[in-house]
Amino acid sequence: MRTGSSLFPTYRDAKEKVAKERTSIIMNLTTKSLAFAALCLSAVSLYAQAPKLVPVPVELPKPGYEGTPANLSIPNLEKVATKERAPFLAPAGVTNVAKGKKVTSTEKDPVVGDLTMVTDGDKTQVDGNYVELGPGVQSVTIDLGSAHEIYGILFWHYFQPRVYFCVVVQTADNEAFTKNLQTWFNNDTGNKAKQGAGKNMNYIETYEGKLVDTKGVTARYVRLYSAGNNVNDLNHYIEAEVFGRPAK
User: Per-residue pLDDT tens for 206-224?
Assistant: First the structure.
């Protein structure tokens, strides 16, 4: 039977092994600490670079006729908010860049009013202060004139509490909506507007309008779809506002 240092580790060997293991542990901990520190510095840097957000200057109209709409047996209907909407935050300098901008539509000859009313700045909640489009799927398109950073789109269909169907909100770089097409809201669950089946909920019109967050997307055109409402097959727009600033 063999004996000696070749078979049994000496004290010195054991000590060296422990030292190596300790060094390895320290190096691993140091590497992880450095990685964590780098991650923290990166997060701090991104936070420092992020623009300061301030409330967007949204001016709401006085409430028109508020109440419970008729024919409320509507699927996928969100509950009516019991509190006022919280301030919408965006970088400083963001304003309504849609006011006075050109509006086109699938409805060439509106039933009531004209397309300029969509961006004329008048959102008074009274009968007659809207453009009325024909039945079925209709859309209005706003040309901002140049590329803008768009943070939110706010629009009102009607002065009474109705539910409009197949509401879709999109932005794009070109008038044909083939470049950088982005869909930001879509409750057209049956894909009636042929823009894809949506997953958002139906909602009841109020004086606060419908505000859609568009995350600062860069685009020139804004398009809004609808396909009638719970009272009739017609489509209406009181006003549409686009909160943004010229793209850099």
Answer: 999 999 999 999 999 999 9
pLDDT tops 80 at residue 150: yes
> What tens digit of pLDDT does each residue of 166-186 get?
999 999 999 999 999 999 999
Classified as helix, coil or strand, 117 is: helix
At residue 44, the pLDDT reads: 47
Contact 192/121 with Cβ under 8 angstroms?
Answer: no
d(CA 144, CA 151): 14
Strands (E), 92-238: 95-96, 102-105, 131-133, 138-156, 168-172, 182-186, 210-226, 235-237
Alpha helix segments (H runs only) across the chain:
11-49
Please check whether residue 158 is in contact with residue 137, taking contact to mean a CB–CB distance below 8 angstroms: no
Q: Give CA–CA dist 195/7, Å, rounded.
A: 77
135 token code pair: 């039945």
Rounded to whole angstroms, how far apart are CA atoms 1 and 184?
Answer: 81
| 93 phi-psi bin (left φ>0, alpha ψ -120 to 50, beta other) | left
Q: Kind of pairing, strands 102-105 and 138-156?
A: antiparallel
Question: What is the model's pLDDT at position 2?
Answer: 47
Model confidence, pTM: 0.80
Model confidence at 62, in pLDDT bands (50, 70, 90)?
Answer: very high
CATH for 56-70+87-246, among 2.60.120.260, 3.40.190.10, 3.40.50.2300, 3.30.43.10?
A: 2.60.120.260
Element counts in the chain: helices (H) and strands (E)? 1, 11
